[in-house]
C-alpha cells in the first residue's frame, strides 16, 4: 500500500510529499523545493530508502532543491513533462527573482508523458499531463490509495495561477475537467499549497470549476 507524508517547505509553504511503499519502505520525494536538511531528516525518521525524485512542474518552490538532492544522494529526477524544460533552464533566474538560494541546474533522468506510470517499491502511480499552470505540469495518481499529487493544478477552493509564461487559463480548466475529474469524486488530492481536499468537494464548491 502507498503511504505518504507531506512537509511544507520554503517561504512559499510548498507541500513536498514523501511517498513510499509500505511493504518495501522504498520511497520517492515529490517536489523537493527546498529545506533539504529537514526533508532528509524526515526520510531518516520514517526509516525509508529514498530512491527517486518526482517533479510535478519546474517552478522554483517545487523544483529548487531537486538538482542538489539528486547530486548529494545520487538519485534520478523523474518528470516533469518536457514542456517545462524552459522553466528548468530558468531556475537560476527564478532563484534570484523570488529570493531563494541559488538552485542547481539539472536535466531530468526521465521526462514524463500522459499515460506513463512511475513505480516506488511495489506501488504504481499513473501519470497525467495537466498543462495550464505550466506547459509541462504532470499529476501523480494512485488508484489503489485513492490519492493524487496534483502540484499547482488545483487547490481547496482555488486553481493554479496562469499569468506566468506558458500558463493558459482555459487549458488549465480543461486539464482539471478532462484529466482530474475522471479519477473519481472520492479521490483525495494533495495540492502544491494548502490543505488536502477531494475532487468531489471541489466540483461542488470550488468557484472556478464548480459544476464542471
UniProtKB/TrEMBL annotation:
Residues 13-193 form the Metallo-beta-lactamase domain. InterPro entries: MBL_Glyoxalase_II, Metallo-B-lactamas, RibonucZ/Hydroxyglut_hydro. The keyword Hydrolase applies. The keyword Zinc applies. One of its GO terms (molecular function) is hydrolase activity. Keywords: Hydrolase, Metal-binding, Zinc. Its cofactor is Zn(2+). SUPFAM superfamilies: Metallo-hydrolase/oxidoreductase. It holds the Pfam family Lactamase_B. It comes from the Bacteria. This is Metallo-beta-lactamase domain-containing protein. It comes from Caldimonas brevitalea. The lineage of its organism: Bacteria, Pseudomonadati, Pseudomonadota, Betaproteobacteria, Burkholderiales.
